[in-house]
Amino acid sequence: MGLLQGATELFPVSSLGHAVLIPSLLHWKFRTSDPSFVPFLVLLHLGTASALLIIYRQQWVAIIRGFFTAAFRGQIKSDSERLAMLLLVGTIPAGILGVFLEHELKTLFANPKAAAAFLTINGFLMLGAEVLRRRAERRAAVEGKSRVAQEERFEVAEHISFRAAALVGAVQALALLPGISRSGVTIGGGLLAGLRHQEAARFSFLLATPIIAAAGLIEVPLLFSSDVPLVEYLAGALLALVAAYLSARFLLRYFRSGRLDPYGWYCAAAGLASLVLLTLNS
Amino acid sequence: MAAGLVALAVLFLIVAVLYAFGVIQIAVSDPHASHHYTHAVLFVALAVASLVAANFARPKRTT
What we know:
Radius of gyration of chain A: 19 Å
Shape of chain A: globular
Largest sheet of chain B: none
Largest sheet of chain A: none
Strand content of chain A: under 5%
Number of strands of chain A: 0
Structural class of chain B: mainly alpha
Structural class of chain A: mainly alpha
Strand content of chain B: under 5%
Helix content of chain B: 55-70%
Order of helices and strands of chain A: HHHHHHHHHHHH
Radius of gyration of chain B: 15 Å
Distance between the termini of chain B: 23 Å
Number of helices of chain B: 2
Oligomer: heterodimer
Order of helices and strands of chain B: HH
Number of strands of chain B: 0
């Protein structure tokens, strides 16, 4: 579970959607009502957040320093200060929607057909983002050039507008729906904001870290209940950390020239196939 | 503008305290719980963000 969660959390394929669909399709019996299940999920998410903190440790030091410097000065004077404020603006909508809609959205968790439908929608959202991106590339007249040269015509994360950061942050909240990928919609949103693919992935991962870490830290007291097998759960979290670290490294390299299309087609096909199978099985 | 944002920060802090002590039960998953720390943390974060925005909005002295 640790390896699966760590690997799928950062890939734009919806870890939550797969966690709902796969047990249902394979008739696995998970006792999600077990009191120790939530602490287990908390530790897995802390493992993923730790992997992102390790990868971006130097950037996070600069971002935190930049946040306090800009906040006290009341002015932005460097790229790291601007990135800190963009991340703050991007985190607020997801935080508000996540806290207030969490309960309503969790009722969908028990419905695999809804997860399959959202996975299909997730696929088409990513494909749609790439269609719009190709249109932007045509406008920028970069057709015929190498992919790396095409990408260089677009922005780095520090240079997007605050409105775009807020929109990317707002779409992050869609990932509370099982089947919608957090990284998929935020990378797609970043592309629409004019970011390079690799920068959209970096902004997505940086944006995810405070939300994932905060959601995990708030639930930490649950870990100290007596019936939690802490050692086994910590081993799962460690595996999630390793898998998330390797996934993030792979994706950052992939997005130097790669696009969202393969993940979009995969999600659309997997969602539709799951929908058909679940309908036939019921 | 800056004064309005400071007032908003104070309001957010009050709401955070009310959620923390379970006085407010709006949009919560368990209406019988005595504390809603997740909501409280969110409103503290919003208060901090409002104070930061207020500092950005205040008039700056030109040197």
